[in-house]
Write a structure and sequence with these properties.
By secondary structure, this protein is an alpha/beta fold. The chain is built from eight helices and six strands; from the N terminus they run E-H-E-H-E-H-E-H-H-H-E-E-H-H. Helix 2 packs across helix 3. The mean pLDDT is about 95.
Length: about 200
């Protein structure tokens, strides 16, 4: 069976270059259609804003490759961005499999400080969307009535040593997903590790 194109989506403040390690592994495994988006600006914007960029990028990949569907691998802030794309921007119809690494699906403690300092989200948009204490409408809409939307295979990868989720270790997991846990890896190690590649 032909391998589908893979779209890689980076987290807050990063760039497409952070996927170079994993893309080399996929190339070695016989994947020849690998595409990493650069979100603009690279950090502090809304997941909803970034999801529009993911949609535009995926549509270009589909047009260029002639494929009907793609796979997506997302890390950190990109997880909730991609989930918004899947549920609200038609992405589920174009996506076969999605791997969601270390995402704030049920809140991101790091967003709490941003929400407290900037309650209206004028500078740090994800503070409003992903905080753990104000019942964000963004997460409410994303997680109800089901957490895995559409005819898409969902996998989450998270770990108890990710210091972005102290006391919130299960936040990256989703009801209905294939939830995988990798101990001993931090937030960025989960993205870069060979173990995550092998699961994907």
């Amino acid at each position: 069976m032909a391998k589908l194109p893979i779209v890689f989506v980076h987290g807050n403040g990063d760039s497409s270059a952070v996927w170079n390690i994993q893309m080399e592994r996929f190339k070695s495994a016989g994947y020849d259609s690998l595409h990493a988006v650069d979100l603009n600006p690279p950090g502090n914007e809304s997941c909803i804003f970034y999801a529009e960029q993911v949609k535009e990028f995926v549509d270009k990949v589909i047009q260029q490759t002639g494929t009907a569907k793609i796979d997506i691998i997302a890390h950190s802030l990109a997880v909730t961005t991609v989930r918004h794309y899947l549920k609200f921007l038609g992405g589920a119809e174009k996506t076969n499999h999605v791997v969601l690494i270390a995402g704030g699906n049920h809140g991101l403690p790091a967003a709490d400080g941003a929400k407290a300092a900037d309650p209206d989200g004028n500078l740090y948009k994800q503070g409003v969307e992903l905080n753990t204490f104000a019942n964000p409408k963004f997460l409410e809409d994303l997680n109800n009535p089901e957490e895995c939307f559409g005819d898409v295979k969902y996998m989450t990868i998270s770990g108890p040593n990710d210091d972005f989720y102290v006391f919130y270790e299960t936040s990256p997991q989703l009801n209905g997903a294939d939830n995988r846990v990798l101990p001993g890896l931090g937030h960025f190690g989960l993205r870069d590790s060979e173990d995550s590649f092998n699961l994907s």
